[in-house]
């Protein structure tokens, strides 16, 4: 029974600080004793086609003989600006003059560095991010990232955050979820392009039958994880036409 359920590959994604866990070495040794080789990679998403500088540890454990392909590195980082929505309702824009003194000070600092249009994060003293660069790490906090445009600013939309993680616009979530739940799900996810590039090629895995009722959710179940506590709905999915 144990032999039947031994996976050809196991991929663990976490923050790089995971390697400082006091039991990390023992944990890796236990995986090796189960018959796996371990490939440890520190990956920054913006070097792999994602408009976000998100650095994560990918630990790939493979059975003997399973090949792990190298990740394709792109020297040119994608800009975040093309991911911005163009028809955002006016009521979502807030006058900078109406913001708290702390927010106004942060926006003033961003303006000095990047002009009148840039990204800013709800962190004291944040210097801002120019739109021709990738966004920095997308977190689970709602309204953590904002777009400043002249005398107004607004929080990035859920769709903009999803695009910043590398999800296509065909990726959807239940309309009854709160913005906070959606943001937590997006911020806890694994960037699909990076996850896809990290997966070892496996002829058996690619030809294994997939239940018809779950076929359209396959990519999302593999590439994006739910938040702790199950706040993301299991109906979250990528449209069937895009998943085929």
| Strand order in space, largest sheet | 5-9-8-6
Low-confidence stretches: 203-244
Helix and strand element order = EHEEEEHEEEEHEHHHHEH
> What's the rounded overall pLDDT mean?
83
- Percentage of residues in strands: 15-25%
Binned, the helix content reads: 25-40%
Distance between the termini: 32 Å
Rg from C-alpha positions? 20 Å
Q: Count of helical segments?
A: 8
* Shape field: elongated
Number of DSSP strands? 11
Structural class: alpha+beta
Major sheet attributes: 4 strands, antiparallel
Question: What does it look like?
Answer:
This protein starts with 8 loop residues before the first strand and ends with a helix. Helix 3 packs parallel to helix 4 (179-187). The chain is built from 8 helices and 11 strands. The strands form 4 sheets. A 4-stranded antiparallel sheet has the order 5-9-8-6, with helices on one face. The protein is 26% helix and 20% strand. Strand 8 (145-149) and strand 9 form a beta hairpin. The protein has helices spanning 24-33, 101-114, 158-165, 179-187, 192-198, 203-207, 218-223, 240-243; strands spanning 9-14, 36-44, 52-53, 55-63, 94-95, 117-121, 135-136, 145-149, 152-155, 171-172, 237-238. The protein is elongated, with a radius of gyration of 20 Å. Residues 203-244 have low confidence and may be disordered. It is α+β, with helices and mostly antiparallel strands and 244 residues long.
What labels would you give this structure?
three-stranded antiparallel beta sheet; 244 residues; disordered C terminus; elongated; alpha+beta
């Amino acid at each position: 029974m144990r032999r039947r359920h031994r996976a050809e590959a196991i991929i663990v994604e976490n923050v790089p600080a995971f390697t400082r866990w006091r039991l990390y070495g023992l944990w890796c040794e236990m995986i090796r004793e189960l018959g796996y080789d371990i490939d440890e990679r520190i990956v920054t998403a913006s070097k792999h086609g994602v408009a976000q500088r998100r650095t994560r540890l990918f630990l790939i454990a493979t059975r003997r003989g399973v090949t792990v392909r190298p990740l394709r590195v792109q020297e040119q980082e994608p800009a975040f600006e093309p991911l911005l929505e163009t028809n955002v309702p006016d009521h979502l824009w807030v006058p900078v003059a109406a913001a708290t003194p702390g927010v106004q000070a942060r926006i003033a600092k961003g303006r000095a560095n990047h002009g009148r249009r840039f990204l800013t994060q709800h962190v004291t003293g944040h210097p801002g991010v120019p739109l021709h660069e990738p966004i920095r790490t997308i977190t689970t906090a709602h309204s953590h990232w904002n777009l400043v445009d002249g005398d107004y600013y607004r929080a990035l939309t859920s769709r903009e955050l999803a695009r910043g993680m590398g999800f296509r616009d065909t990726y959807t979530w239940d309309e009854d979820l709160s913005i906070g739940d959606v943001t937590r799900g997006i911020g806890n996810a694994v960037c699909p392009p990076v996850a896809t590039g990290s997966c070892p090629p496996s002829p058996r895995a690619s030809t294994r039958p997939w239940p018809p009722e779950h076929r359209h959710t396959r990519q999302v179940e593999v590439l994006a994880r739910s938040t702790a506590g199950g706040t993301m709905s299991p109906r979250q999915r990528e449209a069937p036409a895009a998943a085929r």
